[in-house]
Amino acid sequence: MRNALIALGIVAIIVAIIVGAYAIQWSTAEVRGNVAANEAIKANPQFRIEAYERFFNQCASIQGLEAQLAAQMVELEAKPTEKRRLQIATNITALTGARGEAVAQYNADARKSYTAGQFRSSSLPYELPTLMPEGGTQCTV
């Protein structure tokens, strides 16, 4: 009887060790996954460079859209014909929408602090204004 209890105790300890090991593995899975993902992101030099350059490219694209908007506004102030005024108004609407979309993408990428956002240059703003400021967007600080 005593040997049976000892054997049962040994089996219980082995089962407890196995269950404990699985419990530790399960409870630390998220942390280990986050660390592995972060290491993979930071270890990829091509991703780092592309993410860094993407913010400059997005900012330059937004500045280009703002320059086109400014040119359309100048043309509108020159009192064009009614037909041309309607074309300019259509252009302004399209450019404003394109700028809004580009700004939204820049801001969304900048907020991705776990992935691409961590590689945004400190000389670029964290977020761009959704409404075009007077004089356009200043992308570099």
Number of helices: 4
The biggest beta sheet is recorded as:
none
Order of H and E elements: HHHH
- Using only C-alpha atoms, the radius of gyration works out to 29 Å
Q: How many E-type strands?
A: 0
Report the β-strand fraction as a percent range.
under 5%
Q: What is the percent of helical residues?
A: over 70%
Strand-pairing-aware structural class: mainly alpha
Q: What is the residue-mean pLDDT, rounded to a whole number?
A: 85
Rough outline: rod-shaped
What low-confidence regions span 5 or more consecutive residues with pLDDT below 50?
none
How many domains in all? 2
What do these coordinates show?
There is one protein chain. By secondary structure, the chain is mainly α. It folds into two domains: 43 residues; 95 residues. It contains four helices and no strands. Helix 3 packs antiparallel against helix 4. The longest helix is centred in the middle third of the chain and has 33 residues.
